Amino acid sequence: MGKNLTQVTTTFYVCDGGSCRKAGSDPVMRATRAYLRNQGLWDTTHTIKTRCIGRCEDAPAAIVHPGDYWYKNLDAQNVIKVMKKHLEEDKPVEELLVFKEGSTVINSDKERPKKVPKPFSLVEDEDLGLIYSTRGFSTDQYTYPLFLYLAETKGPATLTFPHGQTHSFRDIQSVEYGKYQLEVVFNDATLAFTLAGIPKTEPMALQRSRVLVTEFFYEAFRPEKRGIRLKDKMGRLLAIIWLDPADDTVWNYCLKVQLGMSEVLIQSED
Ligand code: FES
Asked: Which of 8, 43, 188, 205 has its CA 20 to 30 A from that of 164?
């Protein structure tokens, strides 16, 4: 039988993402559950392992509800203190909090600066000539939304492969994200892009096919010629998404959503 949620008053969400596991989330969860079992608090307190909760620098991290209390630097000892405080006094352990409802600051000991793409810079590219380019983020938290946007808006853009094969996003039917790969279905072809991280146990060819570089560029002498280059880990070109020179829609989406740039001064060498 599942947990009787009608009896639950407090829930501990213990992060079980990669960074937290490395930092010791397993002992934290074990200590938490053993304490609840032995104290007879099992039925009224729920414990849930989560995937990454976005505070890897504070690993092992956890969230306590009610109250939206975010904890940092947990271990098998201090998590007991946290539980006792919540369950016996309905209060947080302030010194271990990274955030609580209503806070305007993040109380982290290891806060990392937000990563932002570099500004566009002028480069002499061996394939494209003189271009302004910058690298975007290439995790699937960015690449999947990019393809989804192109599919939902139907471009205007074209996908070009190194061997010359070209598909217009106007002819796209769907995008389907499987285990690791995004299947992009056009009227006349179905293509696959590896977007997710691939475990080392998977075939090397699959690991190597992952899109790991997304490069946004425009030509220096014709700024309206612009696009996105997708490359693998070795810097090999996988495909180029060329944007319609007469339509700014996708380019503006790229600047705002993919690169987080509110305003870009487009430079031209003319
Ligand atoms: S892995 Fe736990 S916060 Fe990211």
From this structure: 205
